[in-house]
Amino acid sequence: MTTHLRGSARREYVTLPWGRVHYRHAGDQDAPVILMLHQSPLSSATYEPALAPLAARGVRAVAVDTPGFGMSDAAPGPWSIPEYARAVWQIADAIGLDSVHLLGQHTGAIVAAEAALQQRQRVRGLVFQGIPLYSDEERAEKSASYAPGYTPAHDGGHLRVIWDRVRWLYPTIGAESASRQVAEYLSVGPDYAVAYRAVFDHRLDTAALAGIPTLLLHGGDDVLNRMNKEVQAAFPNAPLTVISGGTDFVAEEQPEEFASALAAHVRACAAGPQAPADEARAPGAQDRGPAPVPLSKPLYTATVEAEGGRAGRVRSLTGALDLPLSRPADRGEGDPGSDPEELFAAGFAACFRSALEVAARRRRTALAATTVSASVTLGITGPAGTSGPDSYGLAVALHVSDPGVPTDELAELVADADRICPYANAIRGNIPVSTQVTGKG
C-alpha cells in the first residue's frame, strides 16, 4: 500500500489562469474516465493505490489535487463551491477530457455534485464517497468552530496539533497514512479550512441531480457513514455500497475492492452522457432508465428449469425445489399446482424479510414478531380496447407487520430494507409496489 505523496502513477501539471494544477492518472486514453475529487484538506494521494487497479479494470482514472491543496497552486482568494466546480471543468478541458464520471469524497462530493449541475451534459455518472448533507443547524455550528487552524511554533508544537487532529478524526488508520496527512495539512498552511467554509456556506440542490446514474460508495467506518439515512433519502435511486472495515481511506486500504465497485458503476454508465430531462426524444424511443449496474461480486447463483410453461413444472438443479404449475383459472379444489406469481411473491417476501433484519441490525433495533407478506398481481398493462396484442405486467403489494415495534420506527426500517433488498432494487421503477406497515401504536 502506497501512502506517501508521490506514489507510482503518472503525474502531470496543467496551467490555468490562477496557476498550475497537479493530477495523477492511470489507464488507456480511450477508456471511460473517472475524474476523482478528494476530501479537504488532503490531496489526490488518497486515490494513488486504487489507480492501477482501476486501469486494470478498463477505466481511465484521473485524480486531481484541488486548487490550493496537495501540489496544486492556490486560488487567488477564497472560492465558493460553484467556483471550485467551474474549476473542475477548466481542469478537465486542459487535460483533454470530454464526458466523464465524477467521483467526489466529502468536500469533493459537494464540488462534484455542483459540477454536475453546471455541465450535466458531460456527466455520465456520479459517485459520492461520503457526501455531507448537513442541516442548517449543523452547518452553522461547524462554520463557527470546525477546523480552527494552527499557529506555527518554534518548538514544533503545531505538528502535535495536526497529528492529534488526524488521530481524533481517524483513530484506526496506520501511522504512514496519518503522517502523509500531516504533510498535506502543512502544504495548505495554517488556515486549512478554506474549502470547509465553502461547503458550510453552500446549499446543494440534490433534487436537480435526479436522472444522473449515481452510486454511494464508502468504507463502513467512514466518518460520514452516519449520514446514510439522509443521503439515501436525497438519492433514493442510488445503490449504496459499503466496504466493510474501510475508513475514509478505503481506496488505499482495500484498493481492489474499491476499484471493483467503482469500475462496475463506470462501465455500466459508459454508454454516453445523460441527456437533459427536457431534451427531445427520438420517435419511438423507450425510456428504460439508466443502464443496469452489473454485479461487481457475485455471491450465489440459483438455476431453475421450467417445463411446459404455466401448466408445467419447475425444478431446481439442487433438487430442493420441485413443483407442479397450473393456471389459476384452471385450478380446481385440491390442485397442488403453484404459479410464477406465487413463486415471485414467495421470493420477494422472504428476501424483504431478510433485508429488514439487516436494516434492524444497522439501526440497533430489535424486531419482535415481524411478518412480511407479498401479493403479486398479473394484469394487462395496455388501455382497454386498443388494437394489437395485449401487454402484461405485474403489481406488488407488501404488508409488513410487527406488533412489538412502533409503526413510525417500523416504517423507517421498511424504507431501509427497500434499498437493501435485491428484489426491490431489481423492480424499482418497473413494477408498481404499494407497502402497508402495521406496528405498535
Shape category: elongated
Q: Output the helix-strand order.
A: EEEHEHEHEHHHHEHEHHEEEHEEHHE
- What's the count of strands? 14
Low-confidence stretches: 271-290
Helix vs. strand class: alpha/beta
Which range best describes the helical content: under 10%, 10-25%, 25-40%, 40-55%, 55-70% or over 70%? 25-40%
Rg calc: 25 Å
Q: Count every helix, treating DSSP H or I runs of 4 or more residues as helices.
A: 13
Strand order of the largest sheet: 1-2-4-3-5-6-7-8
Strand content: 15-25%
Mean pLDDT: 88
Largest sheet features: 8 strands, mixed
Give the termini distance in whole angstroms. Answer: 53 Å
Model description:
Helix content is 34%, strand content 20%. The chain is built from 13 helices and 14 strands. Strands 1-2-4-3-5-6-7-8 form an 8-stranded mixed β-sheet, with helices on both faces. Strands 9-10-11 form a 3-stranded antiparallel β-sheet, with no helix packed on it. Strand 3 (33-37), helix 1 (48-56) and strand 4 (60-64) form a beta-alpha-beta unit. The longest helix has 24 residues, at 340-363. The radius of gyration is 25 Å and the shape is elongated.
